[in-house]
Write a structure and sequence with these properties.
Layout (H helix, E strand, L loop, with lengths): L2 H26 L11 E3 L4 E2 L1 H6 L4 E8 L8 E6 L6 E2 L21 H10 L5 H4 L10 H9 L1 H11 L13 E6 L7 E5 L6 E5 L3 E2 L4 E5 L5
Antiparallel strand pairs: 1-2, 1-3, 3-4, 4-10, 5-9, 6-7, 7-8
């Protein structure tokens, strides 16, 4: 067999292997591995850039602000709603103070569990009752993750026509879903997206919520 022919044959095989590998990598880039804060969650459940969402005729519903690519908190992504919820009390001001049954752990990413407890406890929380079922009230830790990416998230929220996160408003506070551990009956934590600071507040006080939703990642892709 001609040596030059064998050489070209081997080069062709190697090139095929390289380009096939690259194609497979490009296909992976359309999975959650390519997600970044500022991408949009569409009403049909797809995640894409804002431009791709609009080009495909989809409707943006929320904006990604955290992707747990390292499986640090069980392989999830978070997206924030385009709109604030109305201001409401954590605990019904027409009743006595009650414990809503959250974990009261300021380091836990457990807003979904907290909100479930607030919705379906013996006395439902007004602020939890005002949130759509697919959304929940972020915990202190989850609000901090939103705070870290607030600038890039705001760029997309503005393009979507949503309520810009009030990162320049020192007087704007949001409820978290985390009760204060030393006073779970009458106090919970509020959070400032201006400063990243959180402080306890009387549960009869009324603040808005910035609802978030959770997207579970397929780690076996």
């Amino acid at each position: 067999m001609n040596i030059r022919f064998i050489h070209y044959w081997l080069v062709a095989i190697v090139a095929t292997m390289i380009f096939t590998s690259c194609d497979e990598h490009l296909e992976e880039d359309f999975s959650w591995r390519s997600w970044q804060p500022g991408m949009v969650y569409c009403t049909n459940g797809e995640v894409s850039t804002y431009d791709r969402c609009i080009a495909d005729g989809n409707i943006p519903e929320a904006v990604l602000f955290y992707i747990d690519a390292t499986d640090a908190i069980s392989g999830v992504a978070y997206a924030v709603s385009l709109k604030d919820s109305p201001a409401n009390a954590f605990c019904n001001p027409d009743t006595i103070y009650v414990t809503q049954g959250t974990s009261a752990d300021i380091s836990a990413c457990d807003g979904e569990t907290n909100t479930t407890a607030m919705r379906y406890g013996k006395i439902a929380s007004p602020v939890a009752a005002s949130i759509q079922d697919k959304y929940f009230i972020p915990s202190v830790s989850e609000m901090y993750k939103l705070f870290v990416t607030r600038s890039v998230v705001n760029q997309t929220i503005e393009r979507c026509g949503g309520d810009i996160l009030p990162i320049d408003n020192v007087d704007c506070w949001y409820w978290t879903s985390t009760e204060c551990e030393v006073a779970t009956t009458d106090r919970a934590w509020r959070f400032s997206l201006y400063s990243g600071r959180f402080e306890s507040s009387d549960k009869h006080s009324a603040y808005p919520v910035r609802p978030i939703l959770m997207i579970r990642l397929n780690k076996e892709e």
